[in-house]
């Protein structure tokens, strides 16, 4: 049993962090923490500290892959949010332009570029539909 | 004239002039057989070829180092004409410096004794089996000789040529792996970081990232058009669209200058690339232009070609870099604008309170689920994504976070769900631990290449065994340090080197020096077996400080005449009086005579510090290092009266002491120290030994022996080593030395076929023994011993499959 704890110590630590984050939202734990530290602690501050700890553990577990992936994920999420928050007309227009360019590129024997435009068209249509369904439910 | 050459005509004239100039350089001439093969080796087989135009450059230029890093193609029928006799091909000081890379195509009978004995004709090449692979001869020696001898018949038919090409590819791959034979740890590290990047390139994260980047770029390029098309206030006219492309109106002056400059550069680039395409493939080939352009952007290839004189590619690389930079500069204002707009939108978006309330605990529960059930090594990106979304929602609601209230029922529900997830996850992990591992299977040679030669680096998946792999051949096969196949032997036993016995057939594997020294201390037979009769870069002396003149290997002499020279230990290598350069001691007044009877006399007073005199063989002019570093190894003995005892043995009059402390050995530790002995300026003349004598400051130790390894020096580079301590010259005891994977020593008993063979391994080892039972096809399934090693945890992650024969084919085209 103890070998299991040793083997999965970082995983256990990560699970603990998530569990603590949950407790932090459900109960006013930040007040107890503030009393211990003798300073005012905000819920968001405590949460960000836990998230940073969690990230460090993930970096320790997945090493270089996680370090390289992190900025890529930030950028991808940024682009997704930008698209999601943009005017839906832009999204559908761009999807139409991509759709039009796909056969043109195929005729010009630029298969890879045609594939890119086809992919872009599909993703933009998905983004447009997602926006139509969820935007008003999520954002004010 | 000035009037005639107005702006428009001048613009037209420049490209025409350019084409004219290029055409002058592209004058065609009749192609000889040699030129044909040069082209084949360059274009089809990917060699960097040295081309002697016949006008300016000669083979002498190549040998003088002009073709640095390139291969010289020669036809055996033309060798006398070209004046390159085998003798002439021997490395001159200059050619050896840069390397002698030769491709000899045998189109007529030819024989040579350099660098090894070989002969060839149009159909065959004959030489020592060690150098033959796939019907041709290949020598890649550490003396900077890279020789290929290829019978012309291998290049005449498409089938044979394609087979030969596969062998070239296999050898190139194997040579990269060969580095592992020299420095396995370094290669494993390098490969693992390369692997991380390779895996990352194929990951979902990278794919999503590249799609995000390209879509962002599409938005940057089309945002004007999108705005125009989505305008609702007025109709879109043709003029509006034309306005979009009106550079003068839409962009500021500095950008306009860059824009037109870039257009011009692109036009010139296209003309240049078309010329290259015409020169290389005799037509304007868009595919060739594209591949050439992307090739020129490959930094690795650019560095290689510039170091071998390919300045045109370097020029194209800089040209492309300038064009790309200018395009980026042009796009930069739009990128900044879009970024600003995106940040504005994201920072001003307001999430609904009910979404905040439920999304946060749900996201945390999903993260808990992943962390409890899935391997984090493969799902880390999903966890990071969850955390980023959580951070975004929190960032959007940091002010009203304290006002989100959950009912008691909700709290109980969330906490119970979290505890259930964690509990089930934990129980699953416990169960996994108790259940026997379910292994998957994969092929031993996991690449699709048509030809594969050893050494081969195998990346093993997690919890994976090897499929049945039947092998037969006349060479042994090793996996890391373990012998898994041996021809002509009925049984293979892999044992620890400390159990070495000099009987029957055996191999002694190379290993870490600490392990080798530890084994030498514990096994006298092994110590004797590993002693080298020729000088090497790894030797043993007695410490210079604690035992005074008590050297097993001390020879004393009187006034340089050698009359007083005495052999102290026959087993330890003997220095004859003729070996001593007496001139160094002509002025000696104090004479100290050491004899074996008096093995521990008082240390005489000598004002001089001990010195080391190294004579380099200078077989290679450049041994590849600038300073000579020595690693010192000695046994740090811990006093342990109950177990430890020292036993003196060593046969004929020797006073060799070997620690026979069986259990105590685990208490003893090999300590290491590293020192730079001196800066090595190189050899002044090839083949003429050169001697350097410097102070020899050894570490203080109570150990009986001090082992010294000269770093990054090949054993063949050493002609002799002498330690001078006052008036004594000490001849060290040399030991066999090798870097990386390899066999240090072996013994083959051929009188008893089907006898067992023992493979001795240094360090921690697993005793792997098995019978070689051949199947109906007279082949042995080597997956069985390999799988045993995998199950025992000896082989994991990455391991090396190799043989004593270089380029041993394991898959033929």
Structural features:
heterodimer, A: 140 residues, mainly alpha, elongated, B: 813 residues, alpha+beta, six-stranded mixed beta sheet, five-stranded mixed beta sheet, 20% strand, globular, disordered N terminus
- Counted by DSSP, the helix tally of chain B is 21
Helix content class of chain A: over 70%
Number of DSSP E strands of chain A: 0
Low-confidence stretches of chain B: 1-5, 23-29, 81-98, 546-606, 641-666
Q: Name the overall outline of chain A.
A: elongated
The secondary-structure class of chain B comes to alpha+beta
Structure overview:
The complex is a heterodimer of chains A (140) and B (813). Helix content of chain A is 89%, strand content 0%. Chain A is an all-alpha fold and 140 residues long. The longest helix of chain A has 43 residues, at 43-85. Chain B has 813 residues and is α+β, with helices and mostly antiparallel strands. In chain B, 28% of the residues are buried. Chains A and B meet through α2, α4, α5 and α6 of A and α8, α9, α15, α16 and α17 of B.
Concise overview:
The complex is a heterodimer of chains A (140) and B (813). With 140 residues, chain A is an all-alpha fold. Chain A contains six helices and no strands.
Mind sketching the topology for me?
The complex is a heterodimer of chains A (140) and B (813).
Chain A: H1 2-7, H2 9-26, H3 29-37, H4 43-85, H5 88-107, H6 111-138
Chain B: H1 7-25, H2 33-44, E1 49-50, H3 59-66, E2 71-75, H4 79-82, H5 93-98, E3 100-106, E4 110-112, E5 118-120, E6 125-127, E7 132-133, E8 136-141, E9 145-151, H6 153-156, H7 158-182, H8 184-201, H9 204-229, H10 238-244, H11 247-250, H12 253-281, H13 286-296, H14 299-307, H15 311-348, H16 353-373, H17 376-396, H18 408-434, E10 440-442, E11 452-454, E12 456-459, E13 464-466, E14 470-471, E15 477-479, E16 482-485, E17 489-496, E18 505-509, H19 513-522, H20 524-530, E19 538-541, E20 554-555, E21 611-616, E22 627-636, E23 646-648, E24 657-659, E25 669-679, E26 690-695, E27 706-710, E28 718-725, E29 728-730, E30 733-734, E31 743-747, E32 755-761, E33 768-771, E34 780-781, H21 783-791, E35 798-803, E36 808-811
Parallel strand pairs in B: 1-2, 2-3, 3-9, 10-13, 17-32, 18-32
Antiparallel strand pairs in B: 4-5, 5-6, 7-8, 8-9, 11-36, 12-35, 14-34, 15-16, 15-35, 17-33, 18-31, 19-27, 19-30, 20-29, 21-26, 21-28, 22-25, 22-27, 23-24, 28-29
Helix pairs in contact in B: 1-12, 7-8, 9-15, 12-13, 12-15, 14-15, 16-17, 16-18, 19-20
